[in-house]
Each structure stands twice: as C-alpha cells, then as structure tokens.
C-alpha cells in the first residue's frame, strides 16, 4: 500500500516501508494499479488518490498488461515523426531546387500547396538546409570582392 504523509510517499507493508521519490512515475503508477487491483480499493478511488481519471487508470492497466512496467513510463508528447515533411514532400522540394537552383523557398512552398501538400515555408527552408541545397555564395571576403570590382571598373576605363 502507498501511504502519503507530510514527509513524502511510502510503499508500506506489514514489516516496513520504502520511501518513494515523487518524480518516480513508473513506481507511482504501478502502486496505483496495485492498490486498485490487489488492495481492493477499486479503480476509481485508486485513480483519484494518484491524481488520474478512471479512464486513464484503465489505459495504464491495459498497457501494463501488454508491455509490463516499461509501458508506465510517460512518452514525449506530440507527433513521433514528420507528418508534414514526408518523404514525398522532401523529394519534391529537392526536385524543384535542382530544376531551378535560384527558386525561393516561398515559391517551392506555393507550388507544393497547389499540388495538395500542406507545407510551410519554414519547413521548405529546413529541407533545403538539411540537404545542403542553399545557394552558393562567393568564397571571396567582402574586402576582396570590393577590390575586385574596383579593378574590373578601372580596366574598363583604361581600355577606352
């Protein structure tokens, strides 16, 4: 049985008790299931005691029966994969970029939207960056570019 008092949470039995950390979610959820199923207090009271709903209690119970204690660990919320930047969308972005290296991410996003894909400009920019498809920049420093431009303009003046 799990006892809650001012000093914390304890897993207690007839011969003693063990202190539980409040952030140990697996043990707490297992304790809730143990109290609900084995101690006889029932799912509703066990769920209320631990701050869960009855529906969540049953979800945890089913997961525990299928996968064991590891299933009681909370997963990161949100989608598990790229549901916008699918393989097909990535292929299309790369295709558009290779067909016209000077095409902007905004234009690529617009073309994809017209083809029925839901994509944001930022997602297109990420794909371009991930695959190294940015426009090539000059390897000259700004000072070298300025002096190069001056030299070429001076040559034009000299030839006249």
Task: Describe the structure using short key phrases.
2 domains, 3 strands, 160 residues, mainly alpha, 3-stranded antiparallel sheet, 54% helix
Residues in β-strands, percent: 5-15%
Number of domains: 2
Give the uncertain stretches in residue-range form: none
- DSSP helix count? 7
Describe this structure in words.
The chain is mainly α and about 160 residues long. The chain folds into 2 domains: about 1-70, no CATH class; about 85-130. About 55% of the residues lie in helices and about 10% in strands. It has 7 helices and 3 strands, in the order βββααααααα. Strands 1-2-3 form a 3-stranded antiparallel beta sheet, with helices on one face. It is elongated, with a radius of gyration of 31 Å. The N and C termini lie far apart (about 100 Å). The mean pLDDT is about 85.
In brief:
This protein has helices at 25-37, 43-50, 54-67, 87-99, 105-114, 121-130, 142-159; strands at residues 2-5, 8-13, 16-20. It has 160 residues and is mostly helical.
Helix-strand layout with pairing:
Blueprint: E1 2-5, E2 8-13, E3 16-20, H1 25-37, H2 43-50, H3 54-67, H4 87-99, H5 105-114, H6 121-130, H7 142-159
Antiparallel strand pairs: 1-2, 2-3
Helix pairs in contact: 1-2, 2-3, 5-6
